Structure formats: C-alpha cells, structure tokens
Amino acid sequence: MAEQMLTKKPLRLWEWREYNTGCLIENGIALNETGTFIWKLCDGKTTVTEIIDALCRQFDIRHARAQKDVIALIKLLIAENALKLKI
Fold this sequence. Notes:
Helix content: 40-55%
C-alpha cells in the first residue's frame, strides 16, 4: 500500500487549530511540529511524494526516514477519518 500512496493527494477532513508547538485536530488528535507540517500539506493538491520531499528539506532528514514517517502518519489519520486520499 505504501508505494501506491506516493502519487495520491491526502485531503484534510477536519477543522484544526495551530499552536506554537503543534496543532489540535477537531476530532481530538494532537500533532507535534513535524505532524503539523505534514498535516498542513494534506491539502488535496500535494502528493505524498511531494510531502516527503518537503519534510526532507524542512527538517534535513533522510528520504527513507521521511517516507516511513509520512506514510505512517497518513495511515493513522486515514484510520481516524481525519484524512482521505485523492487520486
């Protein structure tokens, strides 16, 4: 499933509030700074691959680590009905 996700465009389904150290999604999920960075890019226009690349640039981390973290968070948020994937 991970490889199939790379070209999809995650779309936020819930309202959210941003704070200094992260954000809180309306359904009660709290995200740290990195999670908030990923969440903000889940705009239905940006692909998972583009989110991974942006995370690498922003936080100076290796691509393999960024891919693992982004896909894990997106899967979690899909399971919580906070995101859906668009083609």
